[in-house]
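Colleagues,

Please find the record for the two-part complex below.
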Amino acid sequence: MVTKVKSYRAQFSQWLHAKTGIAPLVVFRIIFGLMMFAGTVRFWAKGWIDALFIQPDNFFHYYGFEWVKPMGEFGMYTIFVLLLISSLFIALGLFYRWASVIYFILFTYIELIDIANYLNHYYFISLVALLMCFLPANRSFSVDVWRRPNIAVQKVSNWTVAALKFQLGLVYFFAGVAKLNQDWLFDAMPMSIWLQAKTHWPIVGHLFAEKWVAYSFSWMGCIFDLTVVFFLLSKRSRPFAYLALVVFHVITGIMFPIGMFPWIMILATLIFFSTDFHEKIIIFIRSKLNVKVQSSIGDNSLFLHGFKKKFLTGFLLTYVFFQMLFPFRYLLYPGDLFWTEQGYRFSWRVMLMEKAGTAFFYVTDPKTGKRGEVNNCQFLTPTQEKMMATQPDLILQYAHMIKQEVESRGLKDPIINAEVYVTLNGSRSKLFIDPKVNLAALEDDLKHKDWILDF
Amino acid sequence: MRIGVFLAMKRVLLLAGLVLGLLCLPSCGPDGPEDDVEYSDLFENVADNMIVPRYAQFQSDLSALEAGLNTFDASDVESLISLQDQFKATYLSWQSVSVFEFGPAAEYSALLRVNCNSFPANVSKIEENIEAGAYHLDFPSNYQAKGLPAFDYILFHADQNELLNELSSASRIAYMQDCLADMQGRVDEVVNAWDTYRNTFVGSEGNDQNSSLSLLFNQYLYDYEKLKRDKFSLPAGFATQYGIPLDADTSLVEGHFSKMSFQLIDANLAALENIYLGVGEGGTDGVGIFEKLKEYNAQSTVVDGDLAVAIQEHFAVCREVVDQYTNDLPFEIANNISQVQETSNAFQKMVPMIKNDMRSYLSVTVTLTDADGD
């Protein structure tokens, strides 16, 4: 028994470290760098740097990252300039290791500033950026190789490409698992609501009012998410799976305000194609750019040995297990996941529910008993208010923002209550949290929040 | 085999391109005639039967006020009463245009809401300005010293004899004339701009931040929340300032000196209700938000059933509770706070109906950025 486990481990390690061509990594590096560059330009052009990091008076923190603060106007624009430069350097493969580390740190920093901006897409980018720091993606067809030809390699270990495939596959698979719920499958919710809003579309619009269309979209989306990665892995089904993937992302891209994500996924999933395919892409780019092929340097390959190899295997295994288990942490909490959102984030729950809330906050002076409704726009931007109104941890944080402001103005120990009404997937609005609980007296932690009312 | 795979890929990409093109047809195809813009019927009704005629009405009310000022006779009490009545009519007329603070009205040179109706009036600043005889009404420091609240103060703050006495001073009349000219200049600009903006407004597509749909909805919500908070909760002592609970302060009400607070609130509610129902100036019922919600078969999440009807009924409830009062708001706050609290609850109940339900069915986004969550 023990030897059997050992031999599986040995086989796995052997597979991880087997040789494969570097071309997929190189193409991925270029795509990733360029897409991140374009995404940053878009973010800037839309004025979001100002709207999200400079305008707000208060920011919602990630648990454990309360110390992350925005840097003011000059600082934030500087960071975005650095993001532009580092993403371009990643694409070029110039000072790649530094560029990828800087990109990862800065991008993650930006995301940690305000949890109200959380998107699974951004989390995905952060993770890929982290992986990129460890990948030798600059060891071929890069400025680094042009500067230092001796670092060039033609073969890399399997794990490098496999790590990216794993990350991509995980997003689809878990997005599919998340759709396995009563509302999505058997009530076509919230798909019906989303389609209802598009019934004015020419030609196809009237179809969106049909219940069967909503069911088809729901089921096809779910089946696609659950299976596409396996079809992409198999050589025979790959072209068809990729076609389905393109269609899927184009449709979702047209229908929902999800920005660059569909296009990033369409390009990123090219990594599932063969080394030959990627070599052809590189040859194509070379011919367009008129760059000569470097004189072959024999069977140059990059492999790790000894401690480094062991460390890496350990790191990868930990990463994989963490990624597979973390989305299930919601099982540790009682109550309906979509309602309480305890353990909801970082789990690839993408476009899954339609939730909206209205939050009325009240401050009471404990000495005089004087009570008044808080004017939310004196503290939050409309986006922050919207996000806060449906997420218990943000409701609690907001209460503490109010408390801090009120205490700084001389009212000590205020009692802060919130009357929050939330509708989920078109349900009747219900009281979301206990309106009697004094939020100012509670501290946020990872335990179950027993002041959330039942759905 | 490898070449085969490559060829297959090529075919796949070609096919993908084709599908992409096909999918694009409905959304990026050239626009057909007229009926392509989903909300054009609503926008048309709002622009042609509400915005344009209501601004014209407000403009002519201001002119009538001007005429009253020009012919004012400080020795004649009838002259004062007629000026006061014309002011009241003008203030009520303002209530039906305050919600349209987008496009021309939101231009920096117009900014009607702050320039015409920053209440409560800053009484000492007004007196100071009149005394000095020189002032820059454009300055933000004078927002609360001009506009309709300044008239409210000057024309109503004392009994008739004292007012007539005060108004015999030319500088007081001149100050009102300047305040009036300040409003007229802005309103004329807005009225003229609507000549061309009308087609922009009606032809606007989509739901991004600058679409007519977003502008109209967001101002609609803003006007309602402003009514609820500034005109009601704040003076009643139900509100906070930066989180600090405030005491009731009846001097904060709109129309404090003319004791018009409830009439103004009711006129404001009526204006919002008319937009909702699609009732134009002159009473013809056209396409409003109500009709749109009906079209979508929208369901309320706040009460059972049809959203269009729920909001309609709740407007009626709100107006009814306001109409029940026999005195002005400061009196009711001082003497009848429990009923005032109930009215506040009624106003509150409308918020999620507009902010969540109506917004959701009209597909107006709150977030500027991309989404993936809900």
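Residues 66 and 177 of chain B are 7 Å apart (CA to CA).

Comments are welcome before we finalize the supplementary table.
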